[in-house]
Amino acid sequence: MITATDQKIIQLLQKNGRASYAEIAQELAITPSTAAKRMKFLQESETITVRGVLNPHRLGLYAGAVITLKIEPTREKDICNFLNHELFTSTVLCTVGKSDIFCIIHTPGWEYLHSFIKDKLAPLDGVLYYDCRLQAEVVKRIQLFGDKKKFDTTPDLKKMDWEIIRQLCLDGRQSNSEIATKLDLHVSTVSRKIQSLFNQNYLRIIPQPNPTKFRYASSAIVTANLARQHAKEVCEIISKYDEVALVIRTITQPQIIFGVHSSNNERTARIIQQFLSLPGIEKEDILFRSRVIKTNYWWHGDLGNE
Q: pTM above 0.85?
């Protein structure tokens, strides 16, 4: 059960995901041991995952795609682990429906995206087939870096910088000394590099919620054909709903992809059916989320839990 102290810790981590136990304790007037104990509970119970989230605009990650995969069930763990460790994937979900895995990726160029799919993803043992939809426009996404729409040129970061970013995206609570040991660097170098990355607003360390713990027990991803003349109207209507965290238009076909989150399957299904009755939408495909592997969901409303 999430306590009032847990909620305060999560709120503090939204401001500083790498806050030490001592800093948390001082801010909340609790002991460092209590802060450590509650953090351990939040992470081991999979209530939150504290990790780095990339700023796609500052890093120039303009080449995006939505990828769905049909896989051998026995290879699910290995494939999900591979996708989780890929730096530029922002969402990885296990799903129920025509596909077994739903993935969103944003990369620094179309060449990189093509290489990732052709040389890394497609040859994976257990991938039966995949479908890739290139993104034309992200109409709605819970953004963490303001309303900026223009992508900067990808910065000329050193390999060392990217490796530090990768480590922070895997576990944002790692200490500087732990990262230094893994990368065979001096602690002062890691500390300086991390501070520079934060100052440049290339990423943030934040608590990623497990939606099932925060009033979003039900979630579905819908892909549907969308008549071009109705595209703007439909996207605007769907985006206004609080239960919708994601709306994407694709390049490869005139399609819309949107994610619906609610407290139960009945409400989720009712919202989806309402959307599918809008003009210009047809030939839909619905995937229900079964498990969250990686996500950059943000918080809807308060931190109340069921």
A: yes
State which fold the 156-199 domain adopts. Answer: Arc Repressor Mutant, subunit A (1.10.10)
- Strand ranges (DSSP E) for 72-191? 89-96, 101-107, 127-141
> What's residue 217's pLDDT?
81
Banded model confidence at residue 169, pLDDT cuts 50, 70, 90:
very high
Give the E-state strand segments of 160-304 in sequence order: 203-209, 218-226, 244-250, 255-262, 281-294
Q: In the CATH scheme, what architecture does the domain 211-294 have?
A: 2-Layer Sandwich (3.30)
Q: Are 172 and 197 in contact (CB under 8 A)?
A: no
Q: Where are the domains of the chain?
A: 4-45, 156-199, 211-294
Count other C-beta atoms under 10 Å from residue 283's C-beta. Answer: 10
Class of domain 4-45: mainly alpha
